[in-house]
Write a structure and sequence with these properties.
- This protein is of the alpha/beta class and 311 residues long.
- It folds into 2 domains: 186 residues, Ribonuclease H-like superfamily/Ribonuclease H (Nucleotidyltransferase, domain 5); 94 residues, no CATH class.
- It has a 5-stranded mixed sheet.
- α9 crosses α11.
- The protein is elongated.
């Protein structure tokens, strides 16, 4: 199971509290939200950074708890992905603890970080921002959430007002900072948590599909053109290219099989003409093609390669 998560952080200068918020989107359409807040140590106050990294850590831990094989963390602060991926040096104890926590968690789940532009009208990012502001007390209500759900937040916040971030205590410990799990008013609210691009069961409708995050921009454009075609031809499949390495280029079959599921992986394998192209086909599933389309794409590439070899 692959979960998409949107996280954000905030900081209340008046109270010195950071806030963290996030939304987990499940393949079956369920939505899970959390809002948290805490007071960092005086010598390790990164202001909103504390909220940003704790929100990401919360989302990963909740994904592990849900039994997911992979989680995509969509964030707007660059360091959320740079620190655990080893691209930035950690200058504070909190960022070092966060990096170490993600390293431990990555032994249990595949974690991919995807940066999005903040305050740009992204519905999920805006909702996570609202939840983070609530967590640190900058707002007394989460914008658009039903009153019943806000009361759940309020009650939990009163129980633990200054719980320290988990990452500063135990990278492999249990989440303790009042996540809200499966709050029914939120799960039922499309006004606050819109449908987005979650995968739906049934036959894909041309023009409504989107490539997965992590593909190259030119590949994304090619896939969007492909999705708009009701009955793709041989040439349409041949025109799909990765345009270089992307987030899926180095994935191995076992990891992809766990993310895609047994049924989808088997459908992809059985439709292939050449079993050696199985991993390549799975990567196209990860990028957004259906198993049948991915196998067809691999078969087209195989036929092209063989024809070139005869010349």
């Amino acid at each position: 199971m692959r979960i998409l998560a949107y996280t954000d952080g905030s900081y209340n200068q008046a109270s010195g509290r950071f806030g963290s918020g996030g939304i987990l989107l499940y393949p079956d359409g369920r939505k899970e939200v959390f809002s948290a807040g805490g007071t960092p140590p005086a010598d390790d106050n990164g202001r909103n950074v504390n909220g940003e990294i704790f929100a990401a850590e919360c989302a990963i831990r909740l994904a592990v708890r849900a039994g997911a094989d992979a989680v995509e963390i969509h964030h707007d602060y660059e360091g959320v992905g740079r620190w655990p991926d080893g691209q930035w040096e950690t200058g504070r104890p909190c960022t070092e603890a966060y990096r170490n926590a993600v390293r431990v968690l990555r032994k249990k789940i595949r974690v991919v970080f995807v940066r999005v532009k903040g305050h740009s009208g992204d519905k999920w990012n805006d909702a996570a921002d609202s939840l983070a502001k609530y967590g640190c007390g900058l707002t007394r209500a989460v914008a658009g959430l039903p009153d019943g759900c806000v009361q759940v937040f309020t009650d939990r916040l009163r129980e633990e007002t200054d719980a320290p971030p988990v990452s500063m205590e135990d990278p492999d410990g249990q989440l303790s900072l009042f996540p809200v799990r499966n709050a029914e008013p939120v799960s039922a609210s499309d006004a606050v948590l819109p449908a987005g691009n979650q995968p739906k069961r049934g036959k894909p409708v041309p023009g409504t599909r989107r490539p997965a995050d992590g593909v190259n921009p030119r590949c994304r454009e090619a896939m969007l053109r492909f999705f708009a075609i009701a009955r793709p031809s041989f040439r349409d499949f041949a025109s799909l290219k990765t345009y270089g390495l992307d987030a899926y280029s180095r994935l191995k079959a076992p990891d992809m099989e766990r993310a895609i599921g047994r049924k989808g992986s088997r459908a992809c394998r059985f439709a292939l003409h050449d079993p050696s192209r199985y991993e390549a086909a799975l990567r196209w599933v990860m990028r957004g093609l259906t198993p049948d389309e991915a196998a067809h794409k691999a078969n087209v590439d195989d036929e092209i390669a063989k024809n070139c070899g005869r010349r």
